[in-house]
TrEMBL record:
CDD domains: KPHMT-like (cd06557). Homodecamer; pentamer of dimers. The gene is panB. InterPro entries: Pantoate_hydroxy_MeTrfase, Pyrv/PenolPyrv_kinase-like_dom, Pyrv_kinase-like_dom_sf. Mg(2+) binds at D49, D88, E120. Belongs to the PanB family. This is 3-methyl-2-oxobutanoate hydroxymethyltransferase. Keywords: Cytoplasm, Magnesium, Metal-binding, Methyltransferase, Pantothenate biosynthesis, Transferase. It catalyses: (6R)-5,10-methylene-5,6,7,8-tetrahydrofolate + 3-methyl-2-oxobutanoate + H2O = 2-dehydropantoate + (6S)-5,6,7,8-tetrahydrofolate. The keyword DNA damage does not apply. The keyword NAD does not apply.
Amino acid sequence: MSATAPVRPVLPPDITARKGGVPLVVLTAYTTPMARLVDAHCDIALVGDSLGMVLHGMPSTIGVTLEMMILHGRAVTRGLSRAMAVIDMPFGSYEEGPAQAYRNAARLMAETGAPAVKLEGGQHMAETIAFLTARGVPVMAHVGLTPQAVNTLGGYKVVGREAEADKVMQDALACEAAGAFSIVLEKVPVGLAARVTAALKIPTIGIGAGVECDGQVLVIDDMLGMFTEFRPKFVKRYADLGHAADEAIAAYAAEVRARAFPGPEHGFADQVKA
Ligand code: KIV
């Protein structure tokens, strides 16, 4: 018999119960190896539709499909034993109404094993959030900057300064009232994010929204410094893997061209030793 207790995976009610406690730690993950790394340290692995830009070189998240989310969602859940997977509903998969949202959320959950979905939008999505949560689909909401609305917002701007502040507050309250188990606040001014956090009973998870949120999320490739050129103000780089990879690839290319790689130790003898 094993002496160690089995690891119980985190579920949405565990996240809601963390309101006001030790901050929730969330990173995006899109592949099995990254999910394994995230699993060791984080509460949630978010299969964000940012994967369209980060992994597939798309100009925005608009072109991400349900099939892409299912493929990457499956890869991520294979790498998790404790952290909870939350999977983004991509643009066009939920906005028509509750029935479309339910059909596609059910596919995401059934085909990936993720126990929760995330969708963008506030008051105008409340009916859909209520429909989903009443039918066994835990929803993480997402307000403030909602990247799928980049074309109506006119860019990836801060959302919630001055006259916009009340709308962000009302959006967050509407998502909570509709049954969301937590909510992402993206690129919301720090004072407003603190007021929203104080007003809600569900945890807020900030990205570019200050330290008063109940948790933080970053795109993993951003915080690992995988990109050499792109650096949003709200990202802290904890590593410089982009430069390390560049140096490693340059060294490999030089060694191949100089016939320094492969060395004798990387090859196989013609005869098996007796
Ligand atoms: O798609 C994503 O990665 C996200 C986070 C930035 C919150 O929605």
